[in-house]
Hints:
Residues 384-394 have low confidence and may be disordered. Helix content is 81%, strand content 0%. The longest helix has 34 residues, at 113-146. Helix 2 packs antiparallel against helix 13 (320-349). The chain is mostly helical. The chain has helices at 2-20, 25-50, 55-75, 79-106, 113-146, 149-171, 188-216, 220-228, 232-260, 262-282, 286-302, 304-313, 320-349, 352-373. The protein has a single domain (2-176, 194-382), classed as Growth Hormone, Chain: A (Up-down Bundle), CATH 1.20.1250.20. It is globular, with a radius of gyration of 20 Å.
Amino acid sequence: MLVGMAWATFMLLFNLYMRERGFTEGVIGQVLSMQSIGMVTMAIPVAMLVSRQSARGMLVMASLGVAGGFTMQTLVDSTPFILAASFLTGGMLVVAHVISAPFLMAHSTSAERTHVFSLSFAAMLGSGLITHFGAGSLHELLTGVTGSSLEAYRWVLLLGCSCAVVGSIVFSRVPSGVVGERDKPRGMREFWDTKGKLLFKLTFPFFLVGMGAGLIIPFLNLYFQDRFGLTPQTIGVYYGLVQASMIIGVLIGPELARRWGMVRTVVLTEWASLPFMLILAFTGNLPLATAAFLLRGALMNLGVPIANNYMMERVGLADRALVNSWSRIAWSLSWAVTTVIGGAMIEHGGYVLPLLLACGLYVASSLLYFIYFRKVEIYAGRPAESGGIRPTDE
Length: 394
């Protein structure tokens, strides 16, 4: 949650800070892309280390690395150095992501897991709720104190970095064991030979969602500033409200997954979010755009922890870190490409086309997810031996 507060501060204010420093949307897209490239580069090496290194030490390193990377991006003015710092931040963020799902699986039972995954995701959303409500208001307060909006941005971002440092102290108290099988490491070649088809099915939908998200999600703060002239404080309130709606959705998710099954829950909630993206593309009405922003966020993200839980249930203990790494690679690689494209598209043509393309990619992702896994439904809270997994001929 503390590292999430650092992340949320940057998601809310860094684009606005970069623009005020004189950087274009195209350059901002490159910085965001470099962070994703850092994630892609580090994902597999981290997966190989999970079965050999203490989760505690890796999480402490990750939180300190995130703090250092974000601090460098805030303080340096050279574009190459900002890009390098963004790469470092991405590499450290992926450490926590790769460890998280296997860690939660190792410390929960089948009846608890959907709730544990949802609560973990809700904690991250809660960090965004706190941060988004507070960061925009703090920026306005510090602008009055310092007399400079740019300086106010810088101090708020540095305060966000300090949250990640505190997070490293909390991580130092988690269990110190490994979260994979120390004596049975699985290489990528061995896994691909035995379960390559399943790996593709589990990760390709993430790739498509990452492509769509990269086109528009990092730029929604700029969307509200450009289309409706909102201040950072108001944008922060909007982001806080969407975090609150997402928390409600995520906490409802386990009950839906228990009733409908994990696959149906992921697909149906993603489909339900699409009309609201279309509203964002075309509306010039601020209340309507706000409602669409809140509902889209809640519905699209409701299935995220459920999809992660489903992915972990489909593979064995020795493979979980590796599969989790590839899901992050699939997301980050596509995000790395489309954030550059999205930034350039917005700079030259506005927000409509990126939103429409994102909708199309989300439709493709959800359809493929349903086609791939409709015969292998898992119901939350029910172990396989009691009917949690429906038999399949796959």
